[in-house]
Design brief:
116 residues, Sulfate adenylyltransferase, globular
């Protein structure tokens, strides 16, 4: 796993943080504390950036690149799924025609709620 603690080492963002978590079911998982990471094919946030969902703020703690084949069961649970297989099936259902390619790299965004 390539972990980037400093955002200066990261390439430019390809999208905005507002697009990181948009599906209603995923928003609910984040709000309930069952989703603390989002994998995307581009970089949507910088470390320290704030994501606001339904009035609640979440801070991005880590951003790093990962091969799909390196995704663990524990990381699938961070994504809000019961298992790695459930996560794979969900991703493939959102992207018709996509194949699960273990060498394909994605950007991982890990976040936590801001306690007020």
């Amino acid at each position: 796993m390539l972990n980037h603690a400093e955002h200066d080492a990261l390439p430019p963002k390809t999208c905005s943080i507002e697009r990181l978590v948009t599906l209603p079911a995923d928003v609910e998982k984040v709000l309930a504390g069952r989703k603390t990471a989002a994998r995307r094919n581009g970089r949507y946030a910088d470390v320290g950036e704030i994501m606001t969902l339904k009035g609640r703020d979440f801070v991005v703690e880590q951003v790093y690149s990962q091969a799909l084949g390196d995704l663990s069961e524990e990381q699938a649970v961070q994504e809000g799924y019961a298992s790695l297989d459930e996560y794979k099936q969900s991703i493939l259902s959102f992207h018709p025609g996509m194949r699960w390619v273990p060498t394909m790299r994605v950007w991982v965004h890990e976040f936590n709620p801001i306690q007020k």
